[in-house]
Amino acid sequence: xxxxxxxxxxxxxxxxxxxxxxxxxxxxxxxxxxxxxxxxxxxxxxxxxxxxxxxxxxxxxxxxxxxxxxxxxxxxxxxxxxxxxxxxxxxxxxxxxxxxxxxxxxxxxxxxxxxxxxxxxxxxxxxxxxxxxxxxxxxxxxxxxxxxxxxxxxxxxxxxxxxxxxxxxxxxxxxxxxxxxxxxxxxxxxxxxxxxxxxxxx
Length: 202
Hints:
The chain is mainly alpha-helical. It is 82% helix and 0% strand.
């Protein structure tokens, strides 16, 4: 995967980085760690401007996340409640949980979006509930851009400093992604085993 990403970035520059980061958020198997690291490498070698890499990566990421925000808004809170009432066990959610999450997002949505953008695998998923709970678009865009910028600067900076030593980058980001996925799976299994229907599920 790395080879064709390198070729795209070398051929398309900032536009390629923006496109790849947009696709990474729509199709998560394309890792932003690799995209931004390679962009940082190109900047470190003088082929691109570092801040241009960060800006293009952030713009692409915001665009991809906005797609999932709009999917969530299209489903809507009522649609989510109806779905949970029928399939809640598989989501490990009941209608009471949905109400609590709705209140939480209205109180702490900005901070949640900001910090979630720095967590592998979570940073894309968080956009869907932001849409479901109708987070204001301007607030979503501001905090998504802020959190994504911090993440991109960190990852792009690693590439800028390490140069072409991509194996050292994989050694850092690979275990972190695996650990976060493992935690998500463990929490899901724990919630699934202890799931109880809420008041709205009868």
